[in-house]
Amino acid sequence: MDNNSKRKLSPEEIASVKGLGCLRDKRFDDVFNVRVITRNGKITTAEQRAIAEAADLFGSSEVAMTSRLTVEILGVKYDNIPKLVEFLKAHGLETGGTGPKVRPVVSCKGTSCVFGLIDTFGLSLKIHERFYVGYHNEVLPHKFKIAVGGCPNNCVKPDLNDIGIIGQRKVTPDLDKCRGCKKCVVDDKCPMKALSISDNKVVQSSEICNNCGRCLEKCPFGVFDYASVGYKMCIGGRWGKKTAIGKPLDILFDTEDQVLDAIERAIILFRDEGIKGERFADTVARLGFEYVEAKITNKQL
Hints:
The chain is α+β, with helices and mostly antiparallel strands. It is about 30% helix and about 20% strand.
């Protein structure tokens, strides 16, 4: 990129636009990459065209995808930032996604994926509206990341986020229909090998089963024909210089509303009991998992 400007920005000027999702390109003194919020990684073709036009008008005619499903318009000079923001606003788009706040939610394509067990696009959009938008003015101890995965394949790595939601399909075998086949067709289909035969009845190991639902309607005698949808929540995960695997709560939520309320309780706990500069994983470790779990699930200790 050809940058003819010799202008040196002050730290205050750089900080003033960072909150708008504008991150300085380290190669230049007054050039920024500007993050455009996609809500949950899904945008319309009209929005794509608007982003492309904005990149031509105000940037270097290049865009880049971030690891959290936002789009960055590259090569925007400092003086062009206000015009870019206004242009995007006129097309229903906004910039942002930085600072010690709830960050844009990440979602897999579970709504349309053959392995998806929940409506990931629908749930993640509700999370975006309620927490990214609704809590936008809430300053937290650190950034707070949320991811929604449609199944235990964990493609978007929900358990490496402060809050991770994983779609579940809890199958309950009807053992009255089980014939104790020597070669169980369902066991052969189970990727976790969570089934076995004991006393001529199929046994499902709750310790091995990950509720992926692959066994559903696979039994020719209808043993595995009933399942309920569930939402697993992991808390305290993070990625970066220090990593942590989120630990699952001891319960499965039954509805989206239950999930949303639990996320809200987690954010409020982090806001009120977290220490400035610590990630949610550190808050969970400091306060204790059982205490945080009880707060999130409204369970009495």
